[in-house]
C-alpha cells in the first residue's frame, strides 16, 4: 500500500468535480453576501454623514446649558431636559440606594434562608428579566392614570 496517498486520491473523478463545484459555489455565495452587506452600509453611512454635516455646526456648549425661553421669546436648548434627568436620577438614587444596600445586608447576613429573602431574590430575578419599558408602562398606568 502506498504511504504517500493524498486524501483526494480516494475520490472518484465525479466526486472530485462535485467538490470543485461546491467550493466554487461557496466562494461565489460568500462573495455575494459580503458585497450585499457592504451595499446595506451605504444608507447608514449616508445618514451618519448628513447628521454630522448638518448637526456639528449647531452643537455648541450653550445648547446643553441654555434653558428654553419663555413663550414668545427666541432661543432654546435642552437644558431643562438635562436638569430634569439629573434631578430624577438624584431623587431615585437617594431613595433606592440606602434601601437596596440595607436590604442586601439583611438578606445576606442576618436571614439568608428566610421566606422574605427567597421572595426578595425571586422578585429581583423577575425584575432583571423584564424590559424596563414594561416597568415604565406599568408605573405609568398605576401612578399617572389613577391620579
Key phrases:
147 residues; mainly alpha; 2 domains; 5 helices; flat
- The number of E-state strands comes to 0
Helix content: over 70%
Global morphology: flat
Briefly note the structural class of the backbone: mainly alpha
Mean pLDDT: 83
Question: Could you characterize the architecture of this molecule?
Answer:
- The chain is an all-alpha fold.
- The protein has two domains: 52 residues; 79 residues, no CATH class.
Secondary-structure map with pairings?
Blueprint: H1 13-55, H2 61-65, H3 79-110, H4 115-129, H5 132-144
Question: Would you kindly provide a brief summary of this structure?
Answer:
The chain has 147 residues and is an all-alpha fold.
Amino acid at each position: 500500500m502506498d504511504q504517500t496517498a493524498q486524501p483526494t486520491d480516494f475520490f472518484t473523478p465525479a466526486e472530485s468535480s462535485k467538490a470543485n463545484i461546491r467550493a466554487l459555489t461557496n466562494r461565489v455565495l460568500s462573495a455575494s453576501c459580503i458585497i450585499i452587506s457592504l451595499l446595506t452600509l451605504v444608507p447608514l453611512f449616508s445618514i451618519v454623514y448628513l447628521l454630522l454635516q448638518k448637526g456639528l455646526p449647531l452643537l455648541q456648549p450653550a445648547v446643553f446649558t441654555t434653558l428654553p425661553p419663555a413663550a414668545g421669546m427666541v432661543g432654546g436648548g435642552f437644558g431643562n431636559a438635562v436638569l430634569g434627568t439629573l434631578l430624577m436620577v438624584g431623587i431615585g438614587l437617594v431613595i433606592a440606594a440606602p434601601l437596596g444596600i440595607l436590604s442586601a445586608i439583611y438578606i445576606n447576613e442576618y436571614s439568608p434562608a428566610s421566606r422574605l429573602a427567597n421572595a426578595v431574590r425571586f422578585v429581583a430575578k423577575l425584575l432583571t428579566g423584564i424590559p424596563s419599558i414594561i416597568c415604565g408602562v406599568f408605573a405609568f398606568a398605576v401612578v399617572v392614570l389613577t391620579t
